[in-house]
């Protein structure tokens, strides 16, 4: 994403991609609805003050290199509508912002974002911050799937014990994105053994689904972050990027929107892998909490029995502040 700075003078500041000058011979400029770069036409400039103006901007999608949007009254809706119209076309969208708070909205509109922000010096810092965020997001999208695919491999875990686990603080993780059937989070009370807890996407006759939620277990449990490190559930906070795992082994990042912690009764579940590596987890005793069986079906924790085969994973390393290390340790 580019940052265009409105300036009457020629300045050189780190992070600025172009200067926007009125009727200038160099930099970005516009006149009579035409957008120029170094006095060469590159697209259209539409001042959004009506539905007709928005329709005119939409009509340029796919026919010009750039569309610059300025506003009578700044609004996200026209930006989203123009981004939708230009998606899958070579046309790029630039949007003017007048307040720092508008930078993030324009930069991430429709999870696509504009291709350039036009701002004055009062909004420059905010524009540069979201430019950096966009670059970081692109880097994560390119690196995370490869990294996590190498780190996470689902395998069969055999249930060895199911018992009453007393009451404690249970954590529900609510995400900013919807979960599909077959998706959930890897949870474990030790750093070496995890089970796949399914999202609340399965219908129940007693309560509605919560397809953004995973009822994840006790506050002391671990889960995976999108970068392959781990965190205790009690350490998670809104804005954290965690790892969603599906039954076929595919992974993706999702953002935590809310942590819901309440006192609830637990089931203590002990399990081992086929190499006798052991683990356990405290899971809320509720029909809506489900694990994934070896065959891909889901099973309520209240119906679990010794000998059942569920999906999870085991690791050889222990953890220090969420990072895998080779030092020996014992967890029970």
Structure description:
Helix content is 16%, strand content 42%. The chain is α+β, with helices and mostly antiparallel strands and 332 residues long. It has two domains: 2-143, no CATH class; 152-325, Endonuclease - Pi-scei, Chain A, domain 1, CATH 2.170.16. The longest helix is centred in the middle third of the chain and has 28 residues, at 124-151. The two termini are 49 Å apart.
| Biggest sheet strand line-up | 2-1-8-7-6-5-4-3
Provide the helix percentage: 10-25%
Query: How many distinct helices?
Result: 4
Q: What's the level 1 CATH class of the largest domain?
A: Mainly Beta
Mean pLDDT across all amino acids: 88
List descriptors.
single chain; about 325 residues; alpha+beta; Endonuclease - Pi-scei, Chain A, domain 1; 2 domains; six-stranded antiparallel beta barrel; elongated
Task: Give the arrangement of secondary structure elements.
Elements lengths: L1 E5 L11 E3 L7 E4 L2 E4 L2 E9 L2 H9 L6 E6 L4 H11 L5 E5 L5 H6 L8 E4 L4 H28 L3 E21 L7 E6 L4 E6 L14 E6 L3 E3 L5 E3 L8 E6 L4 E23 L4 E7 L5 E3 L5 E3 L8 E6 L3 E3 L2 E3 L7
Parallel strand pairs: 1-2, 1-8, 5-6, 6-7, 7-8
Antiparallel strand pairs: 3-4, 4-5, 9-12, 9-16, 9-20, 10-11, 10-13, 10-15, 11-20, 13-14, 15-16, 16-17, 18-19, 21-22
Helix pairs in contact: 1-2
């Amino acid at each position: 994403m580019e940052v265009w700075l409105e300036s009457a003078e020629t300045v050189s500041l780190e992070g600025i991609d172009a200067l926007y000058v009125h009727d200038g011979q160099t930099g970005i400029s516009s006149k009579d609805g035409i957008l120029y770069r170094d006095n060469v036409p590159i697209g259209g400039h539409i001042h959004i003050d009506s539905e007709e103006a928005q329709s005119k901007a939409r009509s340029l999608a796919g026919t010009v290199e750039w569309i610059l949007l300025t506003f009578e009254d700044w609004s996200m809706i026209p930006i989203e509508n123009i981004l939708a119209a230009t998606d899958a076309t070579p046309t790029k969208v630039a949007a003017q912002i007048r307040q720092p708070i508008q930078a993030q909205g324009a930069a991430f509109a429709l999870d696509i974002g504009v291709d350039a922000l036009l701002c004055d010096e009062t909004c420059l810092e905010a524009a540069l911050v979201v430019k950096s965020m966009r670059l970081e997001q692109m880097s994560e999208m390119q690196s995370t799937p490869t990294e996590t695919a190498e780190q996470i491999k689902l395998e069969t875990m055999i249930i060895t014990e199911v018992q009453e686990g007393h009451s404690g603080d249970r954590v529900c993780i609510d995400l900013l994105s919807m979960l599909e059937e077959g998706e959930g989070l890897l949870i474990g009370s030790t750093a070496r053994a995890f089970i796949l807890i399914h999202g609340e996407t399965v219908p129940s006759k007693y309560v509605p689904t919560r397809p953004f939620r995973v009822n994840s277990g006790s506050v002391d449990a671990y889960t995976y972050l999108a970068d392959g490190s781990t965190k205790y559930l009690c350490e998670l906070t809104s804005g954290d990027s965690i790892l969603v795992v599906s039954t076929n082994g595919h992974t993706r990042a999702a953002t935590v929107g809310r942590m819901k912690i309440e006192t609830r009764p637990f089931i203590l579940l002990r399990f081992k892998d086929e190499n006798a590596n052991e683990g356990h987890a405290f899971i809320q005793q509720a029909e809506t909490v489900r694990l994934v069986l070896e065959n891909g079906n889901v099973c309520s924790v209240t119906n679990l029995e010794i000998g059942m085969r569920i999906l999870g994973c085991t690791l050889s390393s222990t953890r220090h502040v969420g990072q895998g290390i080779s030092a020996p340790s014992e967890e029970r």
